[in-house]
Amino acid sequence: MTSDQTIRSSTPPSAGSADGGRHRAASGRNIPVDTLRGLACILLVTFHVIGDTAAAGIHVADDSAFRYYCDSVQYLRMPLFTFLSGLVYAWRPLSDIRAYPKFMGKKVRRLLVPYVIFIPVLGLTQMYAPGVNGTVDPDPLLWWINSLSPYWFLLSTFWLFALVALLDSRGLLRSPWAFGGLFAASVLISLLTRPETVETLQLGTALSFLPFFLAGVGAFRFRLIPQRTMTAVPVTLVLLVLVVLVQLSLTGHLERFETRHSLVGIALGVVFPVAFLGWSLKSRVLAWIGGYSSGIYLLHSFAVGAFRAVTGAVGLDADLPRFIILSVGGIFASIFGVIVLRHVRIGPVQIGRIMLGEKVKK
């Protein structure tokens, strides 16, 4: 995208940066943002290893420490991925409606092509190996229409990009007031309704995650990520208050806060990445993992399922060893899978990169 097609609300770095260019590696990648991506990947994989109920994952009891962990990270896991998607969009936003088809074409490659490819792969795996990755609806058409976990996020994010880029290309989100009005409206919708109950093509789910996507956009566009200690400290204090409130609710001392339908839940999903990036926290290991975040998202279900089958075959049923093996194996096997797929070709066609939604190298 050329420079005249971007809104320069603040100076965007050459490779995209939440901090105007600080903490960039020699490759041009932003280390704190990649660190946050890596953390999001770990939350994603470990959550799916444990499962959202006692009947899923490694079948832990509802009163176990593993369940408490899942309930806690639920407030951060997918809101974090969504916030980062909005942040990345804000690095190179769209300002010319004429560039909208080209912009969305890239999102089709990045999100819809992997969706169309991996949905049937996962569906067939679940259908013929139910003990590995769960169960699936017997009607394959519904796999694409209502989606399969975790690929619903690809479709949901596609609609978020489509909506925000369209509004941006018309200049409707340049004003802080207009942007704030849309953000407030999105929060109000999440508080008063349950749009995710509309499962068709994940349109309702996209609406329920709109506050987090807009928060990522607004955090960069309006320079809301703290740049100094004097501003990072109060944001961190707010974060700590939100964490305490959530933990009190999880332990029964307060009424349960819903992740996407309560002010506390939404605020925690927004304030956490803002505080994290405000302190420019970074880890080379997490950043390295974060560099493979898209591939990990696409492949971790298969990687975790494979390790679950192996541990089951050898009779390993202790929760902690299985959790460690499936989590570590799920992450690193997914990264290995990305590396392998990037070299898979059918004649001149780089089929592996197409599956991953990556740009084909010439």
From TrEMBL:
Molecular-function GO term, any one: O-acetyltransferase activity
Question: Segment Disordered: which positions?
Answer: 1-26
Q: Which InterPro entries match?
A: Acyl_transf_3_dom (IPR002656)
Where in the cell is the protein located?
A: Cell membrane
Compositional bias (Polar residues) spans?
A: 1-14
Q: Name one GO cellular component term.
A: plasma membrane
Primary residence:
membrane
Q: Name one GO biological process term.
A: enterobacterial common antigen biosynthetic process
Q: Where exactly are the transmembrane stretches of this chain?
A: 39-61, 73-91, 112-129, 141-165, 177-195, 201-220, 232-250, 262-279, 286-311, 323-344
**Superkingdom as given in the UniProt entry:** Bacteria
How does this chain sit within the bilayer? Multi-pass membrane protein
Q: Which residues form a coiled coil?
A: none
Give the family this protein belongs to, as stated in its UniProt record: Belongs to the acyltransferase 3 family.
Q: What is this protein called?
A: Acyltransferase 3 domain-containing protein
Species name: Corynebacterium provencense
